């Protein structure tokens, strides 16, 4: 009886673990259409299915954002053997654009708590991981000739040692109240080889500020964000 009970517990644990993996949100990323160019214009992405980042969208966790028209981003991606391509269509009812350098990325609150400074402005966080790397990119759109601002870092190997990497190619534009951004990320920079069926854990976070020009201390209680956690899957 005890042996059967133990076997049942092991089976239940395995089943729950498998359910957790299978239950992850999956973003299917198709092969790159020939027309795509990294120039900030996104019309050639019209046939590519997008991932909606907005309040109420499936799989999106909204922090202090209740209205879909407050901020929204439609993210699209494609791949080939050389690069991962990402396109963003970004809408915001109030823009707050500021350059944050890598060495300024952490801000200490009056209570001496560490906060990511990018969360106090309009930024998007793109973090992709694998067994051999952890890649992080923060970027802002280009609004009224300011931006895009970005910085990235790459941790490599089992010990996650930081390694020098070239910044991705980024092109950004603004038209009719919508900011568009295109990103080209070479696979060689990540030291990984793409193939159909490959999955990579990914976190997308959209930070939204409606208080341009205000000090961080006043923004601290008004932080807002959208978060999507899942995996990207390289499809045929």
Task: Give a written overview of the molecule.
This protein is mainly β and 236 residues long. It has one domain: Immunoglobulin-like (Sandwich). The chain contains three helices and 15 strands. It has helices spanning 2-22, 187-190, 216-219; strands at 25-31, 51-53, 60-63, 71-79, 83-92, 106-108, 114-116, 123-129, 133-139, 150-156, 161-163, 169-175, 178-186, 199-208, 224-234. The strands form two sheets. Strands 1, 2, 3, 4, 5, 8, 9, 10, 11, 12, 13, 14 and 15 form a 13-stranded mixed sheet that branches. Strands 6-7 form a two-stranded antiparallel sheet. The N and C termini lie far apart (49 Å).
Topology of helices and strands:
Layout: H1 2-22, E1 25-31, E2 51-53, E3 60-63, E4 71-79, E5 83-92, E6 106-108, E7 114-116, E8 123-129, E9 133-139, E10 150-156, E11 161-163, E12 169-175, E13 178-186, H2 187-190, E14 199-208, H3 216-219, E15 224-234
Parallel strand pairs: 1-4, 1-15
Antiparallel strand pairs: 2-4, 3-15, 4-5, 5-13, 6-7, 8-9, 8-14, 9-10, 10-11, 12-13, 14-15
By CATH, the architecture is named Sandwich
| Extended strand count | 15
Low-confidence stretches: 1-21
Major pleated sheet: 13 strands, mixed
Percent in helix:
10-25%
Query: In angstroms, what separates the terminal alpha carbons?
Result: 49 Å
Structural class: mainly beta
- Outline, from the CA principal axes? globular
Can you write the helix and strand succession as a string? HEEEEEEEEEEEEEHEHE
Which fold name is given in CATH as the topology? Immunoglobulin-like
Task: State the assembly state of the protein chains.
Answer: single chain
Counting DSSP H or I runs of 4 or more residues, the number of helices is 3
